Amino acid sequence: MAYTSIVELIDNCTDVEELIDRIIANDANERGISCEASFEQMKVLWEAMLASVNNYDGSLKSNSGLSGGDAKKYEDFRRNGGGVVGDLLANLITNALKVSESNACMKRIVAAPTAGSCGVIPAVLITLYNHRKANLASFQPSLIKDENVSKDDYNFTLDDKIVRSLYLAAAVGEVIAYRASIAGAEGGCQAEIGAASSMAACAFAYLNAGNIKQIMHAGALSLKALLGLACDPVGGYVEVPCIKRNVTGAANAVTSAELALAGIESRIPFDEVIDAMGEIGRKMDISLRETSTGGLAMTPTGRQYLPKQD
Question: Catalyses which reaction (predicted)?
Answer without folding.
Answer: L-serine = pyruvate + NH4(+)
